[in-house]
Amino acid sequence: MHREASERKRYEDVPVNANPLFSRPGEATDFPRYSLPDGPSLPETAYQIVHDQAMLDGNARLNLATFVGTWMDQHSDKLYIESADKNMIDKDEYPATAAIETRCWTMLADLWNAPVATDAIGTSTIGSSEAGMLGGLALKRRWQERRRAASESTEKPNIIMSSAVQVCWEKFCNYFEVEARYVPVTAEHPVLDGHGLADVIDENTIGVVAIMGVTYTGAYEPVAEIAATLDRLQADTGLDIPIHVDGASGAMVAPFLQPDVVWDFRLDRVHSINTSGHKYGLVYPGLGWIIWRDRSLLPESLIFSVSYLGGDMPTFALNFSRPGAQVLLQYYQFLRLGFEGFRAVQQSCQDVAVYLSGAIGEMAPFELLSEGRDIPVFAWRLKADHTENWDLHHLSSQLRERGWLVPAYPLPDNLADQTVVRIVVRNGLSHDLATHLLDDIKASVAYLDGLDAPAPTPAITDSFHH
User: Fold this and answer.
1) Looking at the structure, do residues 26 and 50 belong to the same domain, yes or no?
2) Of 89, 289, 366, 456, which has the maximum CB count within 10 A?
3) 3-class DSSP assignment, residue 76
4) 14-47 residue pLDDT tens
5) What CA–CA distance (Å, rounded) separates 245 from 243?
6) Does one domain contain both 121 and 43?
């Protein structure tokens, strides 16, 4: 422990150095690492230091772990720079941006088949995690108001979800004091499909979270089947349990690639849907959206009327000041692509995902868990009898050495003994790049299969939260 502290101290004492090529005579070339410099430096010098440090992050196009968008066109970049100073919450000073925000969530309400899109209500957020938490808060508050009206206790709310849920829902339950009740995924029920709901739902259940695009495998949870199970449960018990759809990824894929899949506001039990503008919404981070099918489902008690800079405006958000630029970028993408353009982009991603999964599934060491036919995301595992000399963490490490970030991680709960590798195909991973990836996977497998003894254990993280 003392040695680690000593090494850390020595590292902290090492200054950040400016390349002499970019410094000017008389200007400082060494900068303290964890305290403000004594004086200013020229912008060119400061830029070069930050640029060179950020270069160590690697190539975002080769990051196949993240769902978050890493590319937009030059017109988007120009619009981003022009609007970087806009604060989304300040609707009085930026009324045009506020109007565009309303257009965007109304377009999404229409895309998700709200009965009357103009009767829906929604808002932009920093990301789909904040959007999901707002959806959860609305469920909790409506449950509390119903219970108080009936003179019943509001002390022990719970929410039902799959054990494969994204970590933002664990945060929601922790931060807002709601009991998380998980339906474990199993080999027979790899997603939440209605099975086991009757065992965990009671009068304190505020809602069920259904996932359109499970982060582990990319699979859709069958929202219509979940709704049908809840219909039967209501007939038996009288409990009327709403659904919130976490469509962080799938809500921007299913309308274009699987329009016949019923998961959205066509189901009366679906009260709210969140999505991520900065994932398959094709916008730079961070942007999310949350929409309720009609205004009655967002409790008035959660909406603040804020007097700010001479204006009076309603707001419902966990953040106050937040960027407006991404909202404009979302509107740009809606205008630029339209329905058919979004369909073409998502179809291209899915084509690449199916091409990759098909080729990987044919490799001797592997078996697929999914093919990328829901959202363009798929996962595979190592066959149990293939080798004792390496595992998927070794494969992930080999690919990292070749520039690719491809995560290996355990599945949740009842399937935690299974490790999988997952690839997220985003706009920008072309068929040509995918071919290079396959070549690198084959080369990595050939190297690992050539080992005559177990490979050293690579660094492994405890959990996976993408």
Assistant:
1) yes
2) 289
3) helix
4) 888 776 666 666 566 788 888 898 888 888 888 8
5) 6
6) no
